[in-house]
Design brief:
By secondary structure, the protein is mainly alpha-helical. The protein has a two-stranded parallel ribbon. Helix 2 packs parallel to helix 5 and helix 4 crosses helix 5.
Length: about 170
């Protein structure tokens, strides 16, 4: 029994030795996806596009928020001086506008998240294409990202090369 387990352990160690030896011969690279998402020209363009698309609605929400604050301040300042009907009308107006504001704000947030995810998916496809192209050019066998790597040396980091490739794709 001891002989079989010894042979199995020996074979396992021998296999591990050959496997790590062949791994050393492979071309491995590392990419920091977050840096690419922050520094690529396509990411900057996507952010400008989202800003252009959603800025008018955001401005409307800011204006409405300010008007609601003014209504609240008016209720606090002048509420005691108003007739019961005037106060009740102003409170109803404030409540209705607050409800509508919350709906508009939720809709805005949802629409923005959907568009942001669309742009991110498009950007992710471009990044993957750039990575694959560079991997083929340089005959890289394996590219890792920061999500599952505990350590990588700068020697195998090709993040800046990917960003440069994306700049050429513009």
């Amino acid at each position: 029994m001891k002989t079989r387990s010894g042979i199995a352990v020996g074979a396992l160690l021998l296999g591990l030795l050959f496997w790590t030896g062949s791994l050393a011969a492979q071309n491995v690279a590392f990419v920091t996806m977050n840096k690419i998402l922050e520094d690529s020209p396509q990411a900057a363009e996507a952010m400008r596009e989202l800003e252009r698309e959603f800025s008018p609605r955001d401005s409307q929400l800011v204006t409405e928020r300010e008007e609601l604050q003014e209504l609240r301040d008016r209720l606090e300042r002048e509420g005691e001086l108003m007739t019961t009907n005037q106060r009740a009308d102003l409170e109803r107006e404030f409540t209705a506008r607050s409800r509508e504001f919350r709906r508009a704000q939720e809709s805005f947030t949802e629409d923005l998240n959907v568009r942001r995810n669309e742009e991110l998916a498009k950007l992710q496809r471009l990044i993957n294409d750039a990575i694959i192209e560079l991997a083929r050019e340089r005959e890289i066998d394996l590219i890792l990202t920061e999500r599952n790597v505990l350590y990588s040396s700068d020697r195998i980091d090709i993040t800046d090369d990917i960003i440069a490739a994306m700049q050429r794709l513009r």
